[in-house]
Amino acid sequence: MIERQYERRGRSLRIDPDSLFDVQVKRIHEYKRQLLNALHVITLYNRLKDGGAAETVPRTVIFAGKAAPGYHMAKLIIHLINAVGDLVNGDPDVRDLLKVVFLADYRVSLAEQIIPAAELSEQISTAGTEASGTGNMKLALNGALTIGTLDGANIEIRDAVGSDNIFIFGLNAEEAEARASRHDPWAHYHENAELRRALDMIRAGAFSPHDPGLFAAIAHSLLEEGDRYLVLADYQAYVDCQERVARTYRDRSAWTQKSILNTARMGDFSSDRTVRQYADEIWGIVPVRVPDAAP
Fold this sequence. Notes:
Helix content is 50%, strand content 9%. The protein is α/β, with parallel strands linked by helices and 295 residues long.
C-alpha cells in the first residue's frame, strides 16, 4: 500500500515488512506534536550517520493526516516531514534501518489499511490538551502498543491494558500546566546536544537546501516563541521512551505477548459497551426485543 502510493507519485520506496511500523495518524496540529515525532526521526538519523546502526531496530515511521486549509504552521509541518523523509529515504547509509513515510489524502479506506498494520501507536499530545481521542482506541484494539503522554484516553487505556503494556512518557497535565509559565526552551536547546543538532539542521536548511529558510518558522516557534506545546520539554523523555520501545521490540516474543494482552484487555472500549452505557446513563432508554421472524 505504501509503496503503491509512492509509485503513483512518481517515486520509488521499498518498505521492510519486518521493520517496526511506528504510526502517527491524526489531524495535523501543533498540540498533537507531530513535530516531536519528527525531531525523534532526525535524532535517529543522526545516530545512524554517526555509526549507531548496531543499537537500532529497523523502523518505518508512518505519518498521515490533514491540516485545516488556513493553518499555515500545520502545512509547514507536513512539508518538513516529507522533506525529512526525502533525505532519510534517499540516504544509502540508513535506508535499510529507517524509513519515513507521509501518506497523502488520509481517509477511512486508508485508515483501514494502516491501523491493522501498526505496531506502535503515537499518541503524544501535550498532556492536558487532548479532550479524549478515539484513534488511539482503534489502534490499540488492533494490537498496536501505545506510546503516549498521560492525556485523554491514554489514561483509560493504561488502566485497562496495564502499565507494562503501554509506553508512557513526559509531563502529566498538572506538570505541563505548571511548567508552561516558566518554560525556557533555550535551556533545553543549550543543555541537550542531540536536540540542538536536530534544531540546527532545521534552522540551517539541511532539509531544504534549495530554500534554506523554508522551515525557519518551525524552529522559531519552538525557540523564540516559547514552545507553547512543550515539545522541547518532553523531547528527552520521549527519546528515552522510544529507546525502551526498541529494546522491547527486539524481543519479538515479549512484544507479541504485550500486543495480545493489549488487544484482549481493550474490550471495554468496544462500541457495544459504549452504546449500552450511553443508553443507560445518558439517553435513559432500554433495549427492545425484536420478535422472531415468522416461519
